[in-house]
Write a structure and sequence with these properties.
- The longest helix is centred in the C-terminal third of the chain and has 14 residues.
- About 40% of the residues lie in helices and about 25% in strands.
- It has 4 helices and 4 strands, in the order ααββααββ.
- A 4-stranded antiparallel sheet has the order 1-2-4-3, covered by helices on one side.
Length: about 100
């Protein structure tokens, strides 16, 4: 599943900057069911949110689902980005959110 998502995203996420890759990621069909959005919160820092999780019930029992999504986002955004979990629906949050920072 992870490899399939990465391959799909590689077709859609190609911008040279982290901000550009975020813009492309939220428009990619792979994440459409998650209703993604992002906003810049500081210079070279963004918050990426998934407003829906089609895997929520499974992820409640298997945290690997959430870890997989974080890894896929990290790979899609590239080595110049740092992706950290801010909140998860499985922990009671209304959204899954990630802090994204660009190293350059």
């Amino acid at each position: 599943m992870e490899q399939a998502q990465v391959i799909e995203l590689q077709q859609h996420v190609r911008a040279p900057s982290v901000g550009g890759r975020l813009r492309e990621l939220v428009r990619a069909p792979t994440f459409a069911p998650f209703f993604p959005e992002y906003e810049q919160t500081a210079e070279r820092t963004w918050c990426l949110r998934f407003r829906h999780c089609p895997l929520k019930e499974v992820a409640s029992e298997y945290a690997q689902c959430c870890e997989l999504e974080q890894r896929v986002v990290q790979v899609a955004l590239g080595e110049s980005a740092t992706v950290e979990v801010q909140s998860r629906m499985t922990d009671g949050s209304p959204v899954c959110a990630f802090n994204v920072r660009s190293g350059g």
